[in-house]
Amino acid sequence: MFLMGAKRIIIVIIGAVLNAIALNFFLISANVYASGFTGAAQILTTVFQDYLGIGFASTGLILFILNIPVAILGWIMVGKGFTIYSILSVLATSFFLEIFPVISVSNDIMLNAVFGGVIAGLGVGITLKWGASTGGSDIIAMILSRMKDKPVGGYLMIINGVIIVIAGILNEPENALYTLIGLYVTTRVIDGIHTRHEKVTVMIVTKKADELQQAVHNTMVRGITILPVQGAYTKEDKHMLYLVITRYELYDLERIIREVDEHAFANVMETANVYGFFRRND
Questions:
Q1: What is the pTM of this model?
Q2: Structural contact between residues 250 and 266, judged by C-beta atoms closer than 8 angstroms
Q3: pLDDT of 282 above 50
């Protein structure tokens, strides 16, 4: 348990380093904006420094401030474990943004958009894969998704769309197009590392159905269907747990399965849509 927690922290910090490198070495100098709250922090930094003359308003500081109320909401409405590691990711990203210098590796805005998008995608992708997020828009989108039971991706698309429009207003219109390219590259890299599907269906064959069901419900509020099954080769009687979760909960579920029944068989499948009660709060 301790070893898994330590690995998770290390991965989150590595993701934060990659995000800071993408911003300070590629995106900021080219006026290309990242996704989510990181891009919003870039926009506010541009407004404060270029339009209001407030020089101390750095991207790292603004990113940290923006995430304070979001972290409180995430703690209450999303889950403590997910929020704690997301807060760690935000703190680490803000710290590395402050200590890494803002430099221009290339004068080609296209190269900055593509390489910045790739590195940012790597940072976000590994962070998501290990059960955390880069904070901000991810947490807000998850809260809205649970309230409306609509895909998280739709809300993230709206947030990123606003960033693209503002990028074109604050800078040249072509900056909006390069920002769009950077966001597309980031999304594709994240999809390759983690999963592009907001919801996944998991079928778990186990001899410890009751223990596994209780462990899952101790961590997340999800409906679970339990079916009796039989092994074709061994003829042993087992049970299959059938449930649908979000991609953000996949790491926690994998951890639970390993801890409760390391001999369980789990199959994770893409889920296009869900009808009925996906999550109950009662």
A1: 0.74
A2: no
A3: no
